[in-house]
Amino acid sequence: MKSGLFNNIGTLIPIAENTGKRAVNARDLHGFLESKQDFSTWIKARIDKYDFVENQDYQVFHNFMENSKGGRPLIEYALSIDMAKELSMVEGNEKGKEARRYFIACEKRLNSLSVPSYQISDPIKRAEAWIEEEKKRQQLALENGMLKPKAEYFDHLVERKLLTNIRDTAKQIGLSQKAFVYLLIENKFVYRDLKKKLKPYAEHTPLYFEMKDFEKNGHAGTQLLVTPKGKETFRLMWGK
Description:
Strand order of the largest sheet: 1-2-3-5-4
Order of helices and strands: EEEHHEEHHHHEHHEEEEH
Number of domains: 3
Strand content: 15-25%
Number of helices: 9
């Protein structure tokens, strides 16, 4: 789109951001559909016939850049994605079908990219999405000279945000800590060493568990932590 009011994010037919919403330039769609009518007649007839509503289905603006050497500015129409799909469908040709499929595919892709991690229901996918978001945020901060080296900072984030201890994991999956520990031992996920400390069997590390060093109030040791994959596995097996 050429008006300067748009920030292009599309490909086959440009899909852009217009006043905070996704939009399509009607002139671009008209060209793709290969309509035999001139643009002005085509868009006005479609709006009238199908009762599209201004400032709801479309917006009108003037493109001064197209006529920078003089003359009247072109009248442009920013169409909602729904209106663009409907215009494609009623065109009644193969180009119309192609355009409609394209808009549907673009909406799915853009919507999937814009879903915040906290709205993803799958805990593992939510954790993975959170990691990707943090990678992007910390990379931006690194570029501005605000953070520690990437590996050190990201490891710190993973440790603090994604791993949970036995007590918190039990609470999150709806079990008492005692019942959760019993099930872990009974099903050969963990065992108690000579000091009665919980330790994971080797085959379940690091998929379900990690051992992390800690230091608190002058005391040092290791703590058994549950990974997002482990938490989801135990939730499916024993959660309430």
